[in-house]
Design goal:
Ppm1/Ppm2/Tcmp, Rossmann fold, methyltransferase, Neuraminidase, eight-stranded mixed beta sheet, 2 domains, Kelch-typ_b-propeller, alpha+beta
Length: about 550
């Protein structure tokens, strides 16, 4: 070891941390006084060492410094899909992360330090750290620095890094990880009631156009699904996807074809986080979406399918721009919102709710648009107004709407479920109490089947597992979580920014796309659509 730079109050040493006698000798040469309080900072350092070596270093520091603090920042949770992509990245660089196998979670890291001579140790993942230890004004400052729309990637990245503070011999004790903001605790495992098997669709593999995220899929008639928009693979590159795909089922197998669009302006098809609502066999409506996070909204489009189209679905789609009344325009200037069909006094309406816009990071307003001419209609709504949210789910149910989860104003996932139900003169918001309480989540999809609300995937802050399928009994409020069994998949399934379609006859969910950019570790797009079989969990309740 050698002193490579020496200033009055700063010394830089080049030394192999696994050679402890060499480290000791170099520190002594540099004039370090072990008796005064000493802070060790290891920012993604220990994990690159073999565990026996890093363990020895942690123990050495405790034994040689009577008053010391040790701060660690590095990766955690190797076992879930994001963790898998993260590990692959470091392995490809020939810099494998050694700590993960032996110390896969925060609790294991805490036990590690307490067992190696440190008397106090606190640890939290970076979602908890950002939420609890960063003052609210600083959180808000950071959140408004630039247009930002990668919440899923940010929260997943933060759930795979932790900060740990250990100390010994400090008077008063050293507690840098004490929460300054009072928020509900997100730790603790999520109880699972069982599992749901996942299988790939044989004939849908190898179709690059289905590798996308931020897109939308809708059932336009039984066994015919239209997928539009999003970001993914097209013509051999990653871009905003213009092509529409129609998936249809023949003789028990799903097939996909790329459909041609008759579009006056090619850019209309390029959008993420929009909604598509099917108003009839021949007509669907695209609402909102974005190109970049600073785009101001893309208006609405009609998608018209030929009336003659057979069971395999339309072979071309005519796209027309919708000219809206000024009162209805605000409904279209948003993304990460929901658009749901409802009925009021026997008439069909579209209910556009929440989302975000270029000006507002989260919206809590709603709009009733009378179908099919989309005239803006004032309808009275009473009851407790849900807090603003985007990336929530919304389903039609008994003429009204079920809203679940979402990301709220402070970029915190929400666990509330609301029903907007029809009264004689308007609608009323009602809270649906779930028990055990629904784990807060966003970026999931949702479906209703026979009085049960199904939530699929999403992002939550409980890093011990990833969201699978949650079933909420709308009569009793009973809320059960199921893990997705991936043993028949050869790749990690990322269930955020995906789309899904529920097939009531088969009691199956067809999950299309999903994934995203995984921090600096590369982009993971689910390579092919997946079928989740729900028959066992829908019968058992």
């Amino acid at each position: 070891g050698a002193i490579t730079f020496s200033g009055d109050d700063y010394k830089l040493l080049g030394v192999d941390l696994s050679e402890l006698s060499e480290l000791e000798r170099t520190l002594e040469e540099a004039g370090l006084n072990n008796e005064i309080p000493t802070l060790f900072i290891a920012e993604v350092v220990l994990t690159y060492m073999e565990n026996t070596r890093s363990d020895a270093l942690i123990q050495w520091a405790a034994e040689h410094f009577p008053r010391a603090c040790f701060l660690v920042y590095e990766q955690v949770h190797p076992e879930d899909p994001f963790g898998y992509v993260m590990q692959q990245h470091f392995s490809q660089l020939n810099t494998a992360l050694h700590s993960l196998a032996q110390y896969p979670d925060c609790e294991a890291q805490q036990r590690r330090f307490l067992g190696k001579g440190w008397t106090e140790c606190s640890v939290m993942d970076m979602n908890e750290f950002f939420t609890c230890c960063i003052p609210e004004d600083e959180q808000q400052r950071v959140q408004t620095l630039e247009p930002f729309d990668e919440y899923e990637e940010w929260h997943l990245k933060c759930s795979h890094y932790f900060v740990l503070a250990a100390s010994k011999g400090m008077e008063p004790s050293w507690t840098p990880l004490s929460p300054s903001v009072a928020v509900p605790c997100h730790t603790g495992p999520v109880g699972m009631a069982g599992s749901v098997p996942a299988a790939v669709c044989a004939k849908l593999s190898g179709i690059p156009g289905l590798r996308r995220y931020g897109h939308h899929s809708v059932l336009i008639k039984p066994n015919v699904v239209l997928t539009t928009g999003g970001f993914g693979e097209e013509d051999g590159q990653h871009c905003r996807v213009r092509n529409f795909f129609v998936l249809s089922k023949h003789a028990g197998h799903w097939e996909a074809v790329c459909v041609t669009q008759n579009i006056p302006d090619k850019r209309w098809g390029e959008r993420l986080y929009h909604t598509v609502s099917c108003l009839s066999d021949t007509l669907a409506l695209v609402v909102g979406g974005r190109t970049s996070p600073s785009s101001t909204g893309l208006g609405m489009l009609w998608l018209k399918f030929p009336e003659t189209c057979d069971a395999s679905g339309p072979d071309d789609v005519a796209v027309e721009f919708v000219s809206l009344q000024p009162a209805a325009e605000a409904a279209a200037l948003r993304w990460r919102h929901s658009t749901t069909e409802i009925t009021f006094k026997g008439e069909q309406y579209l209910f556009v709710y929440g989302g975000r816009s270029a000006l507002e990071p989260v919206l809590g307003d709603w709009h009733f648009l009378h179908a099919p001419e989309l005239s803006y209609t004032e309808i009275a709504v009473e009851g407790p107004v849900p807090e603003s949210r985007h990336s929530h789910s919304a389903c039609s149910w008994e003429g009204g709407v079920l809203i679940a989860g979402g990301l709220g104003a402070a970029e915190q996932p929400l666990g509330s479920v609301f029903l907007l139900r029809e009264l004689e003169h308007g609608f009323q918001w009602q809270t649906i109490e779930t028990h055990p309480p629904l784990v807060p989540r966003y970026s999931h999809t949702a479906h209703v089947h026979e009085g049960k609300l199904l939530l699929v995937g999403g992002v939550w802050f409980r890093a011990s597992s990833v969201p699978g399928v949650t079933v909420i009994n709308l009569m009793t409020g009973l809320c059960l979580n199921y893990v997705i069994n991936l043993e028949h998949l050869e790749w990690p399934l990322m269930l955020h920014n995906h789309s899904s379609v529920f097939l009531p006859n088969e009691k199956e969910l067809l999950v299309i796309g999903g994934g995203g950019n995984c921090f600096s570790f590369g982009t993971h797009l689910n390579p092919e659509p997946v079928l989740l079989s729900l028959s066992s969990i829908l019968i058992s309740h």
